[in-house]
Amino acid sequence: MAIEFGATAWGRDWVRIAQPTGATRPNPALPRARTLARNDRVRAAHLTPGSISATVDDRTDRDVTLAFPPWTEAQRAVATDLLSGRRAGEDLPDELHRALTGAGAPPAPGADSVSGTCSCGKYPCAHFLAVLFEVARRLDERPASALALRGVTELDTVHRATRIPIARIDPVTFYGTTAAS
Q1: Boundaries of each SWIM-type domain copy (predicted)?
Q2: Backbone φ, ψ for residue 118 (5° rounding)
């Protein structure tokens, strides 16, 4: 059976927010949430740095909003450095995901830092969880969106790939080492 949500490390992070590995009992809303996402009932999803808003069609439309912290300036700098040298539109491998996580800039927020609201009045509900599954599916298809959710766009990385700030160049070693006299 093929993995529907979280086939890549980029999407798997968001599946773990919906289905924490440390859960002590099953969440009865998960099957309904997966069904809603699987049947394309999550519509009008807008992904912006630090927030996601979507409408979930579950007999009636439910408006869902998720909020989470984008990367700090230091985390953005780490991510931009790791991404420098990549071409725009280039696929982001799972190795980059591991490198970002290892460098202290995890591509997804921690489950405890994600909050949300739903017009159904419950939280977390199947609609909230369906949006998480839909985000996971989108990130599986286009991992660069994970970086945009955290505040780094492809333009940031392309700029860094084509220009090196002068302050980062060491004039002593720039042209290679010199022979000792």
Answers
A1: 103-136
A2: -140, 145
For 106, 129, 143, 145, 173, the CA distances from 13, given in Å and listed in that order, are: 9, 13, 11, 13, 40
Structure-block tokens of residue 84: 């420098």
Contact between 78 and 104 under an 8 Å Cβ cutoff? The reply is: yes
Which residue type, as a one-letter code, is found at position 89? G
Classify burial at 97, counting beta carbons within 10 Å of its beta carbon; exposed 0-12, middle 13-18, buried 19 or more.
Answer: buried
Strands 115-118 and 60-67: antiparallel
Residues 11 and 139 sit within 8 Å (Cβ to Cβ): yes
* Widest Cα–Cα separation across the chain: 81
pLDDT in tens, 19-70: 988 888 889 999 999 999 999 999 989 999 999 999 999 999 999 999 999 9
User: Peptide bond before 124: cis, by omega within 30 degrees of 0?
Assistant: yes
- Length reported for the chain: 181
- CA dist list (Å): 30 to 35, 81, 116, 138, 163: 9, 37, 16, 18, 46
